[in-house]
Amino acid sequence: MSKELRSETGTLADLRPDPANARQRTQRGHGMIVRSLQAVGAARSVVVDETNMLLAGHGVADGAAEIGIEKVLFVDVDGETIVAVRRSGLTAEQKKALAYYDNRTAELAEWSAEQIVADLDTGVDLEGMFRDEELRQILDDAAFGDTSTDREGQGVASPWYKYKTDPGRQYITVGEMEIPVDGEVLERLRQALEARFLDGVAYKQTLEAIIGAGLDASENSAD
Description:
single chain, alpha+beta, 2 domains, 3-stranded antiparallel β-sheet, two-stranded antiparallel ribbon, 7 helices, 44% helix, disordered C terminus
């Protein structure tokens, strides 16, 4: 038996952004959302809470505002109904483009390391959403800032080292060099990552010391 859903119309101005949104759209990602709205029109829905604060869909709302889409249809649901947006009037090419836009724009965004740390500090449970090495990489990118423009072509952080974990083996790569690390080094790195938010210089110095120690160990083991 179908359940009647309550709906009402409003405007984009009724939506409020989440000031603690941990996902930040890149310039390239925002531009692609704008182009998708211009090419195939609105399709993806956004999610708001009872106060109309955005929980998901900040990029869509920002893109719509830029090109002048103002009308919003609010549908009240309780989490037990999937809301399917039925689009009509699309050509075969537009349908294919819509699918690509929908998936690609989701990739062109960055995590806010500061917001993630703030959420973890307040007890937000991210269990199962990130692997440990993924969180470390997010923090690393934020700590070093951007030193190249090869990712996304928009100045997305590309640190000069990478932290990697293989089965039974953990190491840091600097260029083509692999530096083995052990549990003690990992703990120092974790502490350095946390300290980064208090003192970025201390963080970088600590990491350089860790890498230096790893190099010394590698050289000594080769003799």
